[in-house]
Amino acid sequence: MASSVKSKPGTLRAEQALQTRQRIIAAAQSLFLSSGYKGTTLQAIAAEAGVAVETVYSRFRNKTNLLAAILEQGIVPSDDGRGIFDSPEVERIRTTPDQRSQLRLLAAFSRGILQRTHAAHLILRSAAEADGHAAELRKRDTERRIAGQRSYIDLLLANGPLRSGLGREEAAATYSALASPETYAFLVDGERWPPEQFEEWLADSLIRLLL
């Protein structure tokens, strides 16, 4: 008779803690979008997630940390502790020798992040107008994104020069302008582009402007 496999108590507790965390984050995102960042309380988030408010407070302390968690989950969707530059997608980009192919892979990579963080950036943009802590979070997020995109340019430079007369910093600024949350929102929400169309436009624009 085959014996059933049971999770170890420590593993089970860790899984339950992760599930609770995910429920709280999902509840916060839903309420931030429907009720606004300012109008949402930790009590409301706890009720939506089906947990005690003390649980929300002990894990996140405040709404800004919750918003940061929503954003981080979209940037690095895995729970294995790897950073964005440790992902298989970036490794593929790094080891691709052709710059045009690199830019198409980078466009797909950037589109994925922008698509996953779209709701978080909508919340963050609104929250930053009314909350100083949220404004500081938005500033840090922008600085992190630009630093990452500067590193994308370094991946290209490892395979050859950019367009004649184009320097690293100008290339990074061009990438940041094209692949920003604001540009994504304008084209996908405002112009009703499918995300796939945004990705194709981004790739074509990067190739024309950088190479």
In summary, what is this structure?
This protein is mainly alpha-helical and 211 residues long.
Shape: globular
Over all CA atoms, what is the radius of gyration? 20 Å
Instruction: Give the H and E element order.
Output: HHHHHHHHHHH
Which residues form runs of ≥5 with pLDDT under 50?
none
Briefly note the structural class of the backbone.
mainly alpha
Task: Please report the distance between the alpha carbons of the first and last residues.
Answer: 65 Å
| Assigned CATH class of the largest domain | Mainly Alpha
Tally of distinct domains: 2
Instruction: Calculate the mean pLDDT score and round it.
Output: 93
Q: The CATH topology of the largest domain is what? A: Tetracycline Repressor, domain 2
- Helix coverage percent: over 70%
Number of helices: 11
Q: Approximately what portion of the residues adopt beta-strand conformation?
A: under 5%
Main beta-sheet annotation = none
Q: Please, could you describe this protein's structure?
A:
With 211 residues, this protein is mostly helical. The protein has two domains: 52 residues, Arc Repressor Mutant, subunit A; 144 residues, Orthogonal Bundle (Tetracycline Repressor, domain 2), CATH 1.10.357. The protein contains eleven helices and no strands. Helix 4 runs antiparallel to helix 7 and helix 6 packs antiparallel against helix 11. The radius of gyration is 20 Å and the shape is globular. The model has no long low-confidence stretch (mean pLDDT 93).
